[in-house]
Write a structure and sequence with these properties.
- By secondary structure, the chain is mainly alpha-helical.
- The chain has a domain of 94 residues.
- The strands form two sheets. It has a two-stranded antiparallel ribbon.
- Helix 2 runs antiparallel to helix 5 and helix 5 runs antiparallel to helix 6.
- The radius of gyration is 15 Å and the shape is globular.
Length: 135
C-alpha cells in the first residue's frame, strides 16, 4: 500500500489517503470464518436492467475470505447519500465497514497509476473511489 501511495503522489491526496488506510488497517480483523466472496465488484462487473441489479459477471477472483471485500461498491459506485443507505440496509458493523473501505482504497490506489494513461474509464472509477473513501 505504501508503494502504491508513493507512486500516486501527483495524482491524488496521498497524505489523507494514508491516514484513511491506517484506520482501515487497524480495524478489528474478520474472524467469523470464511465466506464466499466475489472480490471484484467493480461497476463494470455489475449489470443493471431497469434500474435494478440483474447480474454479476467476471468470476475470476471468486473465493472464500472476508466479506468486507464485497463492500467495495459502496465507494466505487455510490455517492455519499446512497452509500449510507446501502450501509444501513446491509447492517454491517463499524469494523467490517472500515475493512471494506480499505479494500476499496487498496484497489483504487493501485488502479489509478496503472490506468491513468491507458484507460480513462478505469482511472475515472479509481478517482471516484478515492474521493469516496475520503468522505
Amino acid at each position: 500500500m505504501r508503494a502504491a501511495l508513493a507512486v500516486s503522489g501527483e495524482l491524488t491526496d496521498t497524505a489523507r489517503l494514508a491516514e484513511v488506510w491506517d484506520r482501515c488497517r487497524d480495524a478489528p480483523r474478520y474472524d467469523a470464518g470464511d465466506v464466499w466472496i466475489h472480490a471484484d465488484l467493480m461497476p463494470g462487473n455489475l449489470l443493471v436492467r431497469d434500474g435494478r441489479l440483474a447480474a454479476v459477471i467476471d468470476l475470476g477472483a471468486v473465493g472464500v475470505g472476508d466479506p468486507a471485500v464485497d463492500l467495495m461498491p459502496a465507494w466505487n459506485l455510490l455517492d455519499a447519500g446512497p452509500r449510507e443507505t446501502y450501509r444501513r440496509a446491509l447492517g454491517v458493523d463499524d469494523a467490517t465497514w472500515e475493512r471494506g473501505r480499505g479494500w476499496a482504497l487498496e484497489q483504487a490506489i493501485n488502479a489509478l497509476p496503472y490506468y491513468v494513461e491507458t484507460n480513462p474509464v478505469m482511472a475515472g472509477i479509481a478517482r471516484h473511489t478515492l474521493r469516496a473513501v475520503l468522505d
